[in-house]
Amino acid sequence: MDLGFNEAHVLAISQAICLYRKAQGIDGPLFIGIDTHALSTPAAATALEVLAANGVEVMLAKDDEYTPTPAISHAIICYNRGRSRGLADGIVITPSHNPPQSGGFKHNPPNGGPADSDVTKWIEAKANQLLADGLRGVQRMGHAQALKASTTHRHDYLGSYVSDLVNVIDFDVIRGAGLRLGVDRWAAPGCVTGRRLPSTTSSTWTWSTPRSTPRSASCAWTGTARSAWTRPRLTPCRA
Questions:
Q1: Which residues, listed in sequence order, are joined to residue 37 by a DSSP beta bridge?
Q2: CB atoms near residue 228 (< 10 Å)
Q3: Distance (Å, rounded) from C-alpha 55 to C-alpha 168?
Q4: Are 222 and 6 in contact (CB under 8 A)?
Q5: Each residue of 37-72: pLDDT tens digit?
Q6: Burial of 129 from C-beta contacts in 10 A (0-12 / 13-18 / 19+)
Q7: pTM score > 0.85 for this model?
């Protein structure tokens, strides 16, 4: 198994994203969220240490909740609406549609993402330069200090996303139809998002899984970073 999702790569990619933001004049907040993969939480902690050391305004999830990818895109788009400067972007720590043995660390530009190949290639090249130079160009501070930094904030991703659903979904029609809906939350951020939906719609939801289940993983040093930002690195387990 290729175990390329590791701290060195997270450090390099995080610093490369900071450099890309500077090069592109992106100086608004950075919205960051994670899924339930076992390495997502430590990867987010490492990323915060780099982002805070670079003076980036970081928006962490309220109560450290797992964050669906659309909720991060929603936060970026809503923040940037009507703005021409001080634009926001984001980082999504998830393998997304890739196999469960993969990890993922992805940049969402001000349009909400995902990033085009020209962006990922720029970040990839810069990250590999940092790796080749022994990470000497990476700025980093301790995690406790990063959490207390004046640039670190909290954002209610799920509350904002769910409350805005009424603007794109006619829930009155769903209520009036008397449907009983079965929802498979699997082991993803849908577990926490789902808890917000019944009060928004009706009491006709049936959940196939009762709670979120972080999956086990291991990691090790390997070669260079890749532009897809995904690394095979974990084995799923059933709780």
A1: 215
A2: 16
A3: 36
A4: yes
A5: 888 999 999 999 999 999 999 999 999 999 989 999
A6: middle
A7: no
Q: Which residue out of 96, 117, 202, 218 is catalytically annotated?
A: 96
The whole-angstrom separation of Cα 70 and Cα 66 is 12
Distance in angstroms (rounded) separating the CA atoms of residues 74 and 40: 20
The closest of 216, 3, 235 to 99, measured between CA atoms, is 235
In whole angstroms, give the CA distance from residue 67 to residue 160: 12
Cα 45 to Cα 139: distance, rounded to the nearest angstrom: 14
CA distance 188 to 209: 10
- 96 as an active site residue: the answer is yes
> Residues with Cβ < 8 Å from 44, sequence gap 6 or more?
32, 34, 60, 93
